[in-house]
Structures are given as C-alpha cells and as structure tokens.
C-alpha cells in the first residue's frame, strides 16, 4: 500500500434532518470513495424505539431509504461505499427497506448490504443490573435502578470494528445502530489502510477526521462566525470531505464549484464544538489529544491536518439511555411598541398569578423575553426604551401531565384579559410535550462486544 | 508568538506606570475591549454543561486571551448564570476551551430555555471586556 494513495470520505448528513441534497451532490459533483452519514443524536434512539414499539418494521431514519433510492445508481456506477448509523434501533429493518428500494429501481448491479447489530441493551438491562453493573448516571452518580421502570431505550456506543469487518466482507452499504459518529469515518480509513487497531495515533487521527466532518457543513462554512459575511454560495453548501493518506495525515476539503469555505477558522470552530477536556477525547476506539492537532491552509478550500497523537481505549463503552421524565409546554405572545417590554412583563405577572390561584404545581416556570434576554440573560442589559416588539415566552415543566395541560389553556385568554397591543397567537394553544431525558452511563466493554454481529444481505 | 508577547507585556506595564507617574498625553493606557474584536467562538453542550471554544482572530492575540480571559473572570462574567467554570488551553489552535457547568437549566430535553443546547453561549462570552494595549485595540477595531 503506497503512502501516496488518497482515500476520500465525504460527509453527507450532519444530523437527522440535515440538507437532503447534500449526499446526492457529494456523490455526483466529484470523486469520493465513501459517503458517511450520521443520523443519531442523543435522544433520537428513544424516538425510534417508540416508533418500533408501534410498528415492528419502523425504528430507523426513514429519510435514508428514499435518499438511497435516488443515489443507488450513482453509487453503484462509481463504486462509492456508504457507511451510516441510520439503522437506529432497527438496522435490519432499515437494510431490508434499502433492498426493497434497490429492487424497485431495478438496480442492475449486485449490492451487498451489511447490518451491524448488538448495541441494543434494552433486553439485557435487568440482567446487567442483577450482575452488579449499576449503570450509574455519569453526571449525577445515581444508579439506573432508581428509574429502571421509566427507561425507553438503552444502546451502547459501538466503535469502528464492526464497520471494518463489514467492509472487509465486501459490503457496499454498511447500516448500523448506535455506532459513534467518529466510527463512521474511522471504519473506512482503517479498512483501506490496514492500520493496526492499537496504533493509537492513527485511531486519534481518524477520530479527529471524523469529528471534523460529522456535523456536515458546520466545518465548511455553515454556522461560521469568523468573517461570516464573506462566506459565499451557501445556496449550494459544499459538505466536507476528508482526503486521507496512509501516514495518518489528511486534508479537509469540499467539491469545486460549491459554496461555503474550508479554512483554518472553519475547521477550528468545528474542532472546539462540544469539546470537553481537549487532552482526552474518548471514543470506543481510543482517545485523541486535541492539543496535538496542527492545521495549515494548503490551498483554496484545503486545510491540512497533521501531528495528531492519541492513547489507548478504555475498558468501558458509553451507554446512551433514554428515560421518561415528565411533561413540558412553552407558550408565546408578542407585544408591540410602545412600552412593549413593560406590557410583556405585566402579562407574565398576571399569568403567574392565575397559575398560582389555580393551585397548579410545576417543577419550574421559566420566563424569557425574546428580543431582550432569551440568549444572553442579564448580560444583554436593559432593552432600549423604544423596543419595537418583544416576544413573551413562558415554559413550564412538571412530572404530571395535568398542570402542563392546564397551562396551555392559560396563554390565549391573556389576549383579551391582559395588557394591550398583543398579537402572534395564531398558532393556537401550545402543545404538551413528553420529556425524554438522557442518562449517560458506562458499561464494561466485554459485556457488549461479544454480542456485536455483522450480517450481509444481497440484492 | 509567545516571545513577542512576553516582550510586549512589560512594555505595556511600563507605559502604564509612566502614565501614572507623569500623566503625559503621549502615554497610552490600556483600553477596555469586548472579546468580539479579538476572538471568534463556537459553543455546544454536554448535559447541563455548555462549552465555549474561544479562538483568537489573529495568532498573535492568543497570549492576550490566555492572560486576560481567566477562569475567575469568566466565572464573574457569567455570575448567576453558571455554577462553575473550567478552562483548557489549546495553543496549537490559538484557542481556549471553557466548560460552563450548570449553564443550561438542566440541559438537553429537560431545559425550558430557548438556547437549551447552549448553541449561542459562545456569543455571550464575546460580550466580555478585557484590557488590551491601545495599539492592539486600534488594530482589532479596524
């Protein structure tokens, strides 16, 4: 394997709900070897678990199937391989739906789809707790037993290994459940370059590459604060691409003639996004030291990334547990000049008085004045006297549904029974939302890894 | 870079003491400047903690951030909004990373805040004012 060979991994989705055209353009507008697509946020798994409980064939990112229907001919022609965690809590169901799609469009070429499973721990929680795994909340230290009956989903974060195995066995498309965002990039790189799984600097390099592209265009000009006015062409944002070589160095770039920008600032902003202790960025595959990363502009829309070092993996895997917490609702009204802020504050006082008189009990009532303090709190200072308008935004949260339900009926009456110059209530009564909370825990990796499976489907 | 600042810092100090001693109009005291002119930033969340990555707009300004944007000052800046602050240095990226604990009103799906995931906490830090030499302030505002 020559050091000069370049492997190109393209980011197609930064989250479930990202720009639908991105993966299509990544495949059509230039050469890439792999298309990686991250669909899973922390709470997504519980939404999928709920869908699956209603319909055993559901429980994955449904958008992925029509998308594959669009790009299957292109990826088959060009030999682009797809790696995604769109499988959610039902990767097999997702893979079968893609098989259906391939049949529908009468794809001429043979297609191998790998299904990675074994991350779902829902059926094993009681056994694990009974055998002395407390699955304590990493933030509060409480044992899972204290909320066991409220758990909606539990999935271990898997690393790159099953993806590497799937690619070795010839998979064109790899569909996983809860594999880490970074694993989706690490897998292709380790497969292509045959790196040793215990070459920790290579693991760290692939992890950093994965972190840079896992949020889609957020590293290629989207949501970029530095010189934001100078970022052009976001009507057609170029999503990021990793160009990696066997030495572990790589370049971040995007296709020519796309909008956005790849520069040291855009990559740095993404590197610090959701950062904890930069010395130890922990993944199932190893740890990366973000203080070792060297960035260098290597041409237009090309940033060279080098020097990355890392350390061994830990004996644990992180577990993403979702549990039912309670209910919340948010009501809003807009008050106009003159004295907009004063009117909104008076309305809040009246509303709180009525909630109290009704004897409703909430865990919290939070009032924000959008246009005054919603994003920066008191740091924003006093609003100008001639403020054109302000949105009153009141949120409530309770363990029981009844008080939240009643709160949603107390917003509209303020229009005719409160301060004047009020509008913006056409959307109707606020919705009561169920709160699904996140419970991060650790589990011994030996409890999970032997159960991980890679199955191949062929079309 | 570090060398240059080490040279600059005592100079600025000397200028300040000269200004005190003689109040000459030519001596330029340091000026207060919002971080928005010296740094860009991005933030995200982990549970009830918001992180803010603060990146110097020019590499030569990174040592100013290291010196002026201390953990204690950031705690004061966010007084009443956070329960604790950690700071990490990334000289390789000319960046500081701040963890703002208890910033998100419970965080994630529990929080009732507009910015429940701390996406714009970064800009709240950019409001903070620090002392910089007059020449740097002029360059930054240009």
Task: Give the tags.
heterodimer, A: 459 residues, alpha+beta, ten-stranded mixed beta sheet, globular, B: 142 residues, 5 helices, 6 strands, disordered N terminus
Structure report:
The complex is a heterodimer of chains A (459) and B (142). Chain A is of the alpha+beta class and 459 residues long. Chain A is built from 13 helices and 19 strands. In chain A, the strands form three sheets. Chain A has a ten-stranded mixed beta sheet with strand order 11-12-8-7-1-2-3-6-4-19, sandwiched between helices. In chain A, helix 3 crosses helix 4, helix 6 crosses helix 7 and helix 7 packs across helix 8. The longest helix of chain A is centred in the C-terminal third of the chain and has 18 residues. Chain A is globular, with a radius of gyration of 25 Å. In chain B, 34% of the residues lie in helices and 27% in strands. Chain B is built from five helices and six strands, in the order H-E-E-E-H-H-E-E-H-E-H. In chain B, a hairpin with a 2-residue loop joins strand 2 and strand 3. Chain B has a four-stranded antiparallel beta sheet with strand order 2-3-5-4. Chain B has 142 residues and is α+β, with helices and mostly antiparallel strands. The interface between A and B is large, with 48 and 40 residues.
Please specify the SSE layout and strand pairing.
The complex is a heterodimer of chains A (459) and B (142).
Chain A: E1 7-13, H1 21-28, E2 34-37, H2 44-54, H3 64-78, E3 81-84, H4 91-104, E4 112-117, H5 125-130, E5 151-156, H6 161-168, E6 173-176, H7 183-193, H8 200-213, E7 241-244, E8 250-253, H9 264-272, E9 281-283, E10 286-289, E11 294-297, E12 303-306, E13 309-311, E14 316-336, H10 340-357, E15 364-370, E16 389-398, H11 401-407, H12 414-417, E17 422-423, E18 433-444, H13 445-448, E19 453-458
Helix pairs in contact in A: 1-3, 3-4, 6-7, 7-8
Chain B: H1 2-22, E1 31-34, E2 39-46, E3 49-56, H2 62-68, H3 71-77, E4 84-90, E5 95-101, H4 121-125, E6 129-132, H5 134-141
Antiparallel strand pairs in B: 1-6, 2-3, 3-5, 4-5
């Amino acid at each position: 394997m020559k050091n000069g060979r370049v492997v190109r991994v393209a980011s197609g989705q930064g989250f479930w709900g990202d720009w639908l055209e991105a993966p299509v353009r990544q495949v059509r507008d230039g050469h890439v070897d792999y298309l990686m697509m991250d669909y899973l946020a922390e709470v997504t798994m519980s939404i999928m678990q709920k869908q699956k409980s209603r319909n055993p064939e559901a429980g994955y990112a449904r958008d992925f199937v029509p998308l594959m229907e669009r790009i299957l001919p292109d990826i088959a022609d060009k030999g682009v391989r797809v790696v995604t965690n769109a499988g959610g809590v039902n990767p097999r169901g997702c893979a079968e739906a893609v098989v259906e799609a391939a049949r529908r469009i009468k794809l001429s070429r043979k297609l191998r789809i790998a299904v990675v499973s074994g991350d779902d721990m829902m059926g094993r929680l009681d056994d694990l707790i009974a055998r002395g795994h407390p699955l304590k909340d990493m933030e509060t230290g409480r044992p899972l037993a204290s909320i066991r009956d409220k758990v909606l989903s539990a999935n271990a974060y898997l690393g790159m290994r099953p993806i590497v195995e799937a690619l070795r066995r010839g998979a064109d498309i790899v569909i996983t459940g809860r594999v880490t965002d970074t694993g989706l990039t690490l897998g292709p790189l380790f497969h292509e370059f045959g790196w040793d799984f215990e070459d920790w600097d290579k693991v760290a390099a692939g992890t950093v590459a994965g972190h840079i592209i896992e949020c889609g265009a957020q590293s290629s000009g989207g949501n970029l604060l530095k010189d934001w006015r100078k970022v052009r062409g976001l009507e057609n944002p170029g999503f990021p691409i990793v160009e990696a070589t066997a030495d572990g160095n790589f370049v971040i770039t995007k296709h020519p003639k796309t909008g956005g920008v790849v520069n040291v600032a855009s990559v740095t902003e993404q590197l610090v996004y959701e950062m904890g202790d930069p010395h130890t960025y922990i993944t199932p595959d190893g740890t990366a030291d973000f203080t070792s990363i060297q960035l260098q502009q290597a041409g237009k829309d090309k940033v060279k990334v080098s020097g990355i070092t890392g350390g061994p993996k830990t004996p644990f895997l992180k577990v993403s547990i979702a549990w039912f917490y309670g209910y919340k609702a948010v009501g809003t009204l807009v008050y106009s000049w003159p004295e907009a802020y004063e009117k909104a504050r008076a309305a809040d006082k009246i509303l709180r008085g009525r909630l109290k008189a009704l004897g409703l009990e909430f865990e919290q009532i939070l009032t924000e004045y959008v246009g005054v303090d919603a994003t920066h709190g008191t740091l924003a200072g006093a609003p100008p006297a001639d403020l054109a308008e302000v949105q009153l935004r009141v949120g409530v949260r309770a363990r029981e549904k009844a008080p939240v339900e009643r709160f949603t009926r107390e917003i509209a009456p303020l229009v005719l029974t409160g301060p004047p110059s009020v509008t913006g209530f056409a959307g109707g009564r606020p919705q009561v939302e169920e709160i699904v909370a996140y419970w991060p825990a650790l589990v011994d990796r030996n409890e999970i890894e032997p159960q991980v499976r890679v199955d191949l489907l062929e079309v | 870079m570090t060398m240059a600042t080490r040279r600059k810092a005592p100079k600025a100090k000397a200028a300040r003491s000269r200004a005190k001693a003689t109040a000459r109009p030519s001596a330029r005291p340091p000026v207060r400047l919002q971080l928005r002119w010296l740094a860009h930033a991005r933030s995200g969340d982990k549970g009830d903690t918001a992180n803010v990555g603060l990146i110097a707009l020019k590499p030569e300004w990174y040592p100013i951030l290291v010196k002026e944007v201390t953990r204690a000052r950031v705690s004061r800046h966010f007084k009443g909004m956070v329960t604790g602050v950690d700071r990490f240095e990334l000289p390789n990226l000319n960046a500081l990373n701040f963890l703002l604990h208890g910033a998100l009103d419970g965080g994630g799906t529990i929080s009732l805040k507009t910015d429940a995931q701390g996406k714009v906490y970064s800009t709240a830090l950019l409001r903070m004012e620090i002392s910089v030499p007059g020449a740097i302030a002029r360059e930054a505002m240009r």
